[in-house]
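Entry 14. Structure prediction run on the chain below.
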Amino acid sequence: MFGRCLFASRHTLPVILAGATMFLLSSCSDNKSQAEKPLTPVKVEQARFTSYSPAVTMTGEIEARIESDISFRVSGRIIERSVDTGQHVKAGDLLARLDPEEQKADLASADAGLKLAEAQQAQLQAAFNRSSELLQKGLTTRGDHDTARAALTSAQHAVDAARSSLASAQDALGYTELRADADGIITARSAEVGQVAQAAQMVFRLARDGARDAVFHVQESIFLRRNAFTGQQVEVSVALLTRPEVTAKGVIREISPTIDAKTGTVRIKADLGDVSADMALGAAISGRVVLDPTQVIRVPWTAIGSKDGEPAVWVLDRNAQTVAMRKVSVFSYEKEAALISRGIAPGTEIVSEGAKFLREGQKVRILGEDKP
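Output returned:
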């Protein structure tokens, strides 16, 4: 038994030693392979601040500075319409007319009322004059004279009321004619002949001649992110979309305090003053606002990656020759570069090329700094 074990040990020992030797040789080979694995080559550049004047481009249209709704001051059926949308009118021009029969009847009634009141006043005036004469002769009492005076005063008040009613009836008859209150262009119409128009119901919209505004609807994201239009005397360069050579300069004068819930835009108006006839009402325009310069760090597109769904860049640790990803805030994207506003400081070395296959803490080889 002991002999067989000794015999087996003598034959097994060389095999074990051979296997151990092969394992050690393999391990050394692996370590040598890992040690000799080439480092990922990258290009780096130093972050530097640069001045950047961002610009916002918008589209909009030309509108009148003053636009008003024109309506009848009395109700009635429209029997005549003299103008239509797009037509230029002068102040005082007749735009539409209501059926005046009711107002004419009221005027006739008021006129008759005034004549009756004046006749009664004349009778009471004569009676008061007679009472005054009789009082002087002692043929009437003071009480009867005072009664005559009171009746005359009441009649005079009735005449005044009748005259006021007549004036109101005359005005109401005049209100059956709708006339332009200024020179301008009819931009909208909401009534037609035969329709019953209510008092104060908009019948026409009039864009007055004179100063013009460029009106833009800016996306909420641009407005809030860049705070572009809150400074004093913000200038806008305006051009027709169909004829870019037709231009004008404007200054933002009004910003809507609310955001349109449907479109998510903010309405902005720029004062253009008096512009050429080429910039007609409703003309489609483009507007460009150059904002105040700001300090940004410009990096190539190849330097921008993503970390947790946010923009990020690879930053080089010069001493360890390793890289780490750092989140950044991108102010704006250009054709070949990204403009970083926050996240890295000037002087930081970032990977500009070769960032695609990097991992956190990886050692890299910097191109252009290879030892001979």
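The two ends are 68 Å apart (CA to CA).
Filed with the rest of this week's runs.
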